[in-house]
Amino acid sequence: MTPFKEDAITAISSLPKTANLDDIMYRLYVLDKIRKGQEAVKNGETLTVEQLKEEISKW
Predict the structure, then answer these.
(1) Is 29:49 a contact under the CB 8 Å cutoff?
(2) Please, which residues have CB within 8 angstroms of residue 32's CB and are 6 or more apart in sequence?
(3) What is the pLDDT of residues 38-47, one digit of tens each?
(4) How far apart (Å, rounded) are the C-alpha atoms in residues 45 and 3?
(5) Looking at the 3D structure of the chain, how many domains does it have?
């Protein structure tokens, strides 16, 4: 996995010149969530569909 800083620079560079701070922060937030999700899958920290349904039904 590439270092976060490199991915962040690439993500920010791909934004249009009219992007504001909120656009940049949102892009970095999404990038972070994707990386954390990939790491969770890699570590087996996921739920099956049935487990998720059961967890949701408790609400």
Answers:
(1) no
(2) 4
(3) 999 999 999 9
(4) 21
(5) 1
- b/e per residue, 30-42, with b = 16+ CB within 10 A? ebeeeeeeeeeee
The amino acid sitting at 39 is: E
**Torsion, Cα of 4, 6, 10, 13 (10° steps):** 110
**Token digits of residue 52:** 């998720």
Can you give the residue range of the structural domain that contains 50?
4-57
Low-confidence ranges of the chain (pLDDT < 70): 1
Cβ neighbours of residue 33 closer than 8 Å, sequence gap 6 or more: none
